[in-house]
Amino acid sequence: MKNFVKIKKGTYRNAPIKDAIFPLVKPLTFGKKGAFVTVDGSALMGPESKRVRILVDSPLSVEPSSKEDYQALMPVKKEPKKKETTQQAMDRIKKRFEVLDQMTDAVANGTVRGLIVSGPPGVGKSFGVETILEEYDAMAKLGGGVKTEIVKGSMTPIGLYKTLFNNSSKGDILVFDDCDTVLFDEVCLNMLKAVLDSGKKRTISWKAESQALRREDIPDRFEFKGGVIFITNVNFENVRSKKIQDHLQALMSRCHYIDLGMDSTSDKFLRINQIVRDGMLKEYGFSKEFEKEIIDFMVLKSARLRELSLRMVLKIADLAKMDFDNWKQLAESTCMHRQKNV
Fold first, then answer.
1. Is the overall model pTM greater than 0.90, yes or no?
2. Which residue from 25, 119, 178, 317 puts its CA 20 to 30 A from 216's CA?
3. Count of CB atoms within 10 A of residue 70's CB?
């Protein structure tokens, strides 16, 4: 049976040892340098330390210990993270986008009032949202359903106020896509907090004097009854500015927030594969083999591509449609960073 000792105070190769427990190899012995204990130090010092001598000040510095105490002091070995398989990664990404579809549908039918969607550019955040809302718009033209407006680009506070007013009726759905500049304007942020609130009544007001509002007969106060989806490239949880961070936290607390993730290159390629497989390039009339060739080309040239996105897939597909024999050379010139001369 293996015995254990606790070294209350000692040294090994001039390094201090204090309150450490070791399996005992040889009991306390006296040598030229004084008293020492031979122990198995491999667990703490490495496999080459199976038999080491620890000098102690006196016999009182050594006391019996137990296996349980020894194990309690051992560093916990972390289980190596299991590597995610390609299929598992695809399933994870697919589930995220299925949740996005479900939440978009909930905004369109009035169950959810506000939704923020965050994710890297070019992975199809807008694609799924717009596809679902197009179905609702088609129903609206037949005499029922919602009215959708998609707003893109930068916006001033007064422009935001007017846009909100013009889409404030019950059944209106307002989608902000690529409007990240409003997140860094305090006036715009306060309006967004109001319209994305999950409360029953959302009142928006504009207290500053404005001839533009008077000319268009827009009141300085109105109730917003529509739905809002805000699609952004900004990860609200990683913004460093404390001032903006507080506002973004307030936005997340008021409505539903989906972080699509996919920050890695491999995740982005998996998402691109999914969308292409589901028919993104159908109108081009390419074979499945050629669609795969486009994706394989992007994988091969990923380090030089100006961006890794669904938009880039379409750009390269356009070049292949334009010149089927020379599309790779065209892509090298128009879709990639110039290769530096060595």
1. no
2. 178
3. 18
pLDDT digits 0-9 by tens, 243-270: 788 888 888 888 999 998 877 888 888 8
What b-and-e string marks burial along 108-129, b requiring 16 or more CB atoms within 10 Å of the CB?
A: beeebbbbbbbbbebbbbbebb
Under 8 Å between Cβ of 272 and 313: yes
Residue 62 token pair? 């050594």
Of the candidates 148, 138, 190, the one whose C-alpha atom is nearest the C-alpha of residue 171 is: 148
Alpha carbon separation from 135 to 18, 131, 132 (Å, rounded): 72, 7, 5
Which of 130, 219, 250, 145 shows the shortest CA–CA distance to 178? 130
Cβ atoms within 10 Å, residue 275 = 17
What CATH number matches the domain at 86-259, 3.40.50.300, 2.130.10.10, 3.40.50.12370, 3.20.110.20?
3.40.50.300
Residue pLDDT, tens place only, 189-202: 999 999 988 778 89
Using left for φ > 0, alpha for ψ between -120 and 50, and beta otherwise, residue 110 falls in left
Name the DSSP letter for residue 51.
S
Q: Residue 296: is its pLDDT beyond 90? A: yes
Phi, psi dihedral angles at 297 (to 5 degrees)? -65, -40
DSSP state letter for 286:
-
> What six digits make up the tokens of 16?
């201090």
Residue 41 DSSP class: -
Question: Tokens in use for 66?
Answer: 């137990």
Per domain, the residue ranges of the chain are 4-73, 86-259, 265-334
Would you state the pLDDT for residue 76? 62
Whole-number Å distance between alpha carbons of 159 and 200: 25
What is the SS3 string spanning 307-328? CCCHHHHHHHHHHHHHCCCCHH
**Rg of the chain on CA atoms, in Å:** 32
- State the CB neighbour count (10 A cutoff) for residue 253: 12
